[in-house]
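Model the whole thing, not chain by chain.
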Amino acid sequence: MSAALKTGVLDLAAEAFLARYEGLRARLTGDAALREQAAGLFRSAGLPGPREEAWRYTALRPLAEVRFAEPLTPVEDCADLLARLPAISAPRLVFVDGRFREDLSRVPECVAVRVGGPAFGGLADPAREALVALNTMLAEDGAEIAVADGVDAGTLMIASLGTSGAGRIGAFHPRHAITLGRGAKLTLVDVAIGEGVYLNNAVTSVRVAEDAALTHLRLQMESEAAFSIATIYAEVAARGTYDSFTLTLGARLSRAEIHARLAGPEAIAHLNAARLLRGVQHGDFTTVVRHDAPNCASRQTVKTVLAGKSRGVFQGKIEVARIAQKTDGYQMNQAMLLSPDAEMDSKPQLEIYADDVKCSHGATVGEIDPEQLFYLRSRGVPQEMARMMLIRAFLAEAIDGVAHDEGRAAMEAAIEAWWEQGL
Amino acid sequence: MSDSITTETIDTVAALAEGGYKWGFSTDIEMDMAPKGLNEDIIRLISARKNEPEWLLEWRLKAYAAWLKMEEPDWAMLRHEPIDYQDLHYYAAPKKKAGPKSLDEVDPELLKTYAKLGIPLKEQAYLAGVEPEEGARPQVAVDAVFDSVSVATTFRSTLEKAGVIFCPISEAVLSHPELVQKYLGSVVPAGDNYFAALNSAVFTDGSFVFIPKGVRCPMELSTYFRINARNTGQFERTLIVVEDGGHVSYLEGCTAPQRDENQLHAAVVELVAMEDASIKYSTVQNWYPGDANGLGGIYNFVTKRGACRGARSKISWTQVETGSAITWKYPSCILQGDGSVGEFYSVAVTTNHQQADTGTKMIHIGKNTSSTIVSKGISAGQSNNTYRGLVKVLPKAEGARNFTQCDSLLIGDRCGAHTVPYIESRNPTAKLEHEATTSKISDDQLFYCRSRGLSQEDAVGMIVNGFCRDVLKELPMEFAVEAQKLLAISLEGSVG
């Protein structure tokens, strides 16, 4: 990227992050060479601007205008936030402002967990994604989770609690790595909540070995003043499954970016999502599914409801390599606009180099169907209730696909709470 | 079974490559050429050769200045050697005998060229100046463009009676300067994009159509393009204006002789439709696609855009793209008038090393505007075929409606098919639907046809024709026949 394409604000923000790195450097643990390389990449790339194709619909300017600082004292009292975590009967790893908190966590038994430093994982691509370079440069903590061959590890929750860091606006860059051995199983409930302004720039590497299955339920319920960037790299071996669902309710500016690579035959990836945005929220859901082996399947259902002046972005790409014959790729992306000031931008993409494939995508954008509304009204359902019923039915199509009962219930409860706050 | 079919398909693709380009002949006519290279002097030369008024020269120079500051776009899925813009002739005109006003004076070589092309001029007779009988079937008027300069225009008198202006744009600049000045660049501004700016600076000729209020053009208008001289960039400029309640159907068809060196073509087409007006613009593009090794072929960078300015106006683009080494083309509609309608129907076939990155833009500005996009891409050989489209709904476009269907068909496992749609909605009452599929010809379909005694080639031909039916049926009769023939020729080798 040439310097001329960047605006001043983005440059200054990038410089501030680089200065932070210089200051922290000596204290950072983990692979120093990797960090140095990432810092070099970030120095030349900077924060991506609107001229970059991958960021054409999401401007990082609001994020760049914030001056982030390191919290002076760690936050001790998180009772309020903890109380808001979904009720899921499972061990949990709790991070407060990106730092692991043993006192709040319950480490599971059948899973190998290592905390106290970033888990780089090795799948991320800091050369392509500038925010991943930023994370690699500044990551301080994270969880390395490994499920051994053949173990069904049940459910595990990773919770991120964001705060305004005792008055100072913090930026944290958690770095997690999840590895499932052959035939292993795990349901990972990935929750992000918080209060006030902060930046949560997380990167997660996921490796699913042969015949293993990871269910990744992501509940993004960050503070509506926060910035949330989550980048996930998943690599799935033969007959493995990466089944992810992202619920987006929070953050002023958020982007969830999932790169799933189907590396072995008959691997499966599900990248589903439901999003409700209001006010001036900006929510970006970007996916890249790469079919690199024959007979793989990928499925995506993404539902977006937009109120107020919110803006929804969906970018979904299905890439099919020459070798990936008999690929079955499907993607559906639907958005409902509830207000005249809301905006939806979609870019579904197919890039196909194999001939014996079945790939399709569909996209719709519209409002609540007046005929359906009329049907309900004519049966005595009040206007507002009828609207709500239709919106829920719209979202249900995606959420009903979550097989994990507690996880689905937690999502439904979160949506319920969202409604209660009103549009 | 599937293996055998794959092998067969590969064989057929190979056969296609060897099938060769049927219309690769070259006509020997003396050319009047400007020296190679592009600079202000060349632009002044072009302008002077055409006796253009001062404002047009200034407009060209402004476009040139804008072009110098621009960078060649690189976002399309196209790979090619850098184009040396200084290694081209920017002006070439067939040497004329004095005033070829009457068709008898038209170079017989030229008429032979058209005969070889099979131009559906009823053609030679009309060219010879025979007036049509009263009440004869709807006719086709042809403004033949031969290497940048229109040399033969037929049916002038019939059209004049209806008040329709159909002439080379260079002539319109002189005979109807007020119209040209008013509309030229009003849809595609001189500095719109790299290739449009280049075209604005150096365009040599093209067609001008003006349909006055309430007139239904009595015949379909047609221009045949033909790139002929070696190393001649072609920069056609077409402007069609239809006033309130008018209608015109315009046909554009192209074939080019076989060449080894790449030839650049950067045309601009502007359409303006006022209240209740409708324009149907149909293209069959069959320029030289390069040989089996990807050598040669036309580089086709075209900017086509229509403005539906008036309420209830309609612009419909239909294209069948089988030729060119590189196609970069996005016929678009700006739906400004309330209730205006935009349509885009496209078949793009790529074989060997051809690359096509084509699609449309539908910009919904007015209330209750609607658009339909149907795109069928067929890739064979080692080609890459991309659909790239934008549907944009602005906040005031209450009740806007879009339906998009993009289907890709892959023949062989060395080609690529890509779909890159952009969907942007800023009005909740807008209803947008997009669907895209990618598949190969199914074994079931083939088996069904073959079991009924069809050869492999006929079966594939039939299936491909069915695949493209939604688009082909939008073509005017004259073109539909030619287009089907073209599809058959393009895929001929690849299916037998």
